[in-house]
Structure formats: C-alpha cells, structure tokens
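Changelog-adjacent note: as of this version, every example in the card shows the full chain rather than a window. The one below runs 326 residues end to end.
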Amino acid sequence: NKLHEEWSVYEQVASDADLRLKELEREVKVACRADSSRTPEQRLAETRALQSDVNAFRATLDQLGTGTASVRPSLDAASAASVTAAETRATERVRHLQESLRQHAEHLQGLCARQVQFSTTCSALSSFLADVAQILDSDSDSDADLKRRRDQLKDLFASFAPKQHLLDRLNEMAYKLPLSAQEAADLSKLNEKWHALQGQCEQQQAGLQDSVLKQDDFLAKCDDWMHFLKRVERDLAQEPSGEHEKLLQQKQQLETLQYELHARQPVLSAILREGDELATAAPTTSPDFSRQLAILDAQWGNVLGRAHIRAASVDRALAVWAAWQR
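Full-length structure tokens:
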C-alpha cells in the first residue's frame, strides 16, 4: 500500500543520509588534522568547501524530517519516538561538524594572517639589510669624508636597534607557523646576515672613529663630548609613559641610545688617554685638570647606570601591561 511505499522510501533515504553523514565525519576529521604538506591557504579553501558540503547536507536532513510528516501519524508511539530520536541525533552530529569546521576555519584564518605578517616582515627586514650592505660597500678613502662617513655609519649602526623587535617577532612567529623548508632556510640566512652586517657596521664605525679621533684636537673632542652628554641627559630625563604605545616607543628610543652609548665609548677613552698624556707632558698643568678628567669618567659611569635603570623601568611597565592584557 501507499503507506508502506512511503515508509520504504523514507528508510532508504535515511540510510543514504546516514552513510553520507559518516562520510562527512571522516572528511572533517581528516581536514582538522595537522598537515604540513599543504599551505594554510590551501587547507582553508578545502575547509570552506567542506563547510558548504555540510551545510548542504543539513538542508537535506531538514527535508528528510519534513518527509516523515506523512508517515509519522501512522506509526505507533515507540516507532515515532525512535524516528524522532534518530533525526535528533543526526541533527546534533551535523551541528558538531559545523562547529568543528567553524573553529578550524578561524584557526586557519589566523594562520594565514600570521603567514602574511611573517612574509611582510621578512621582506621588510631583507630590504633593510640590502640597504645596509649597499651603504657598507660604498666606502670612501678621502680623509675629508672621514667624519661624514663616521656619522653615516654611526646612524646606520643605530638603525638596527628600532628594528630588533621586528627580527625577534619574526623568530617568534616562526615557532608558531608551519614554515616550509625553504622558508626556514631563508629565515636562518636572514638572521645570519643581520648579525654579520651589524658586526661589520660596528667594526667599520670603530675604525673610522679612531681615524677621526686622531685628526681632532683635544679641545674639539671635549667640546663634542660635552654636547653629546647634554643630549643624553635630556633624553634620560623623560619619565616612563603610562600608555602602552608610548612605552614601546620609549623602549625603542632607549635601545637606540644604548647602541649609541656603546659606540661612543672610544671617544671618552681617547679623551682620557690624551688628557693623561697632556698632564704628563706638561707638569705645570693645574691639578684641577686631572680632577676634571676623573669627573668626566665618573659622569660617564653615571650616565650608563641611569640608562640601564631607565630601560629596566620601561621593561617593568611593559611587563605590567602584558600581565594585564592576559
């Protein structure tokens, strides 16, 4: 009879739907596994395609429920309850698949965004290092250009400090991203090039500094040094900010300053050395002269200490922000 035919059709459709649901469950399980053989973009595209399949199946399942309306009144209570329970279980299984795919798609979207950020940062640092290498290769043998070249290399050496956090972030991202073998090799070369060029820059600057110091007379060195100390004192007078972005800016400024303090150390050494030579060569030199040299040395130690304390203060403030954000 007609009821029997409708019930047979329903059972066949329900059986086919159950097989398809099991197939989708297997596909979702495979899709959500870690897989380094495909890029996050490829996996995201596959996940979205699978989401469409699951959503389409959900619509089919809803139609199946509607199809039982004609036969449900003719079923006994136990059979009707069994059909309802089976449909409810199938609906819950589909919802679970939809939620799993939604979470997985969000995870892959985050991976894709971090991959773009990684590539952008890597490209920016590679461009920076290419510019550094070009400047280092464009040396000048002219004595008249020594100071200009020294200042150029000093600024170049200092330019590494504000970009150090980019390299640190890049290396940190590398631990969280499924990098290909080529990307991992490129990152390793980037780190090696960074440290090699930074060392080369410092070495060339130190050599030019010695040449400039030999050209300058003692008073010129002292005058240059006092102007430098006044600027450093002014920079260190700035109190740590309470705003996160300004704290990050202050951290970068302090890192740049500490690079410069390190680079300027040979200047003080030359002043103290030549001062001692002048005092030895001219016994009639005022006793205040030697005392002033000692004060200069002590003042330098104080500046280094203050720079270290200020950097530690900014780091503590940033740590408080990081703890609050967690």
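Structural remarks: The mean pLDDT is 82.
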